[in-house]
Amino acid sequence: MNVVEQIEQVLRAQVQELFPEQAPQVEKSLSVALNDDPNKQQFGDISTNAAMLLAKLLGENPRVVAGAIIASLAHPLIDSCAIAGPGFINITLTSEAFRQTVHQFSEDFAGFFKLRVDAPRHHYSIEYVSANPTGPLHLGHGRGGIIGDVLGNIERLLGHTVTKEFYINDAGKQIETLGLSLKIRCEQQLGIPAELPEEGYRGEYLITLAQELCANQKPAVDQALAAGDTRFFGNYAKQKLLAEQQETLRDYGIDFDTWFSESTLHKSGEIDTALEQLRVNGVTFEQDGALWFASTRFGDDKDRVLRKSDGTLTYVAPDIAYLRNKIMRGADKLVIVLGQDHHSYVVRLKGLMQALGYNPDDLDVILYQLVTLKEDGAVLRMSKRAGRMVTLRDVIDAVGADVARFFYLNRKADAHLEFDIALALRKTEENPVYYIQYAYVRTNSILEKAGAFPQLLPQMGAVYTFDEHEKLLIKKILALKVLLQNIGHNYQVHLLAYYVIELANNFHSFYAGHKVIDPENPEQSRRRLVLITLLKQTFELCFKLLGISCPEKM
Fold this sequence. Notes:
Strand content: 5-15%
């Protein structure tokens, strides 16, 4: 256990001993927080709200309860305790606590951040992007992509099994419309009078596809046109556009474990199996020749059609089969990343989980807000059907994958994101990506320079007594463990971006005010070089989770 976990264990045991009747009632709300804020070091290293929680139940003054707790709160890692404000207990750690923490870092750095051995492990299915294969990935897909990808990286680091998944919507009306649109573009390319219908796709990319198809497969195009076969054009466009999406995502640093095709659900009979399961569970009914899901029983605003009176399936039917398929493949935690325009679908999805006989709490939906692109001070507008698009490829080509990933992540998912191209291109500290990568490069530079002084080389297993400024860096690294575990539960992946900026800021401030390589003070140099080594590893770990590169030079 790390020092925070050890102190929490001791504190909870103390509360149980002193207040056995009230302890169970405060179990979930009791918090033990690490203080890694440089501006709040007067509040100790760890703080807890235990006294204030207990005071409400006891009808006592929180400071009096806090006094009772700290009167007998003893542990080799606790130096002192103090009562602050309305009843917070602030704990100052001993030097041994920091030595122990550095030792744990040194033994197995990546392993330090995993869940404890006795913590439960899950199989996460994380679905994100899942764009229709009807055009290039647009600006917004970059945001959903980075949220899902980084979450998967974090859950995997913690020790969970993770399947990163892209759902290919390759069946249904949109593919028919795509085929019709490409057919008409081919007719226009061949000089045959034809006009796109109102619902057709108007992007320039279909004109390019038509030119390519007519040039390379003219006999097949003529045959399909003569037969009125829109499926030929739909299949061609679908395959080409999906391949383009896959290439864009690879260049964006996203590699999915599973590309799941909706059409396989139709061919395998899994949709019929899922609908039969709903029927057996008594949550479907027939009306006006159609099959309905009684979704109002599960909080939806109206019941939903599953199969129309003409026998065609609605989009809800394959979604049911897909949820079931994920669970049948072993997933016990389902996470789906969707744009905010799908907010009304969340209740329906959870209702489907319950209707199938699964726990709806095993499904979580992350909704992200819109993205706008700001260039030369103006916000660009886009529309796929009208052909006015800003694609994810445009963004990657303009600023690079590192900057694109970080900028997309550096804002809370449920807040609107304005992507500022001018800021993204700056090679100054105003650009957060430049700022954090420069911090990493600086750690490398320091360690390289230290190589000229063999007597100063860090000894990772040595016993050091760290000063207050050094302790702050240790706490900041330790805070990453707490943060990653929290993200594992609350999915607030943007907090990792915030953390690495704070880490860089702490490091830059420390380096500006403290000499690291000092042949006149070898003991101090060695322990500070230990910290620089750990900081370098922390940056590397964060960058790996964020999916950005670790440059050697800048």
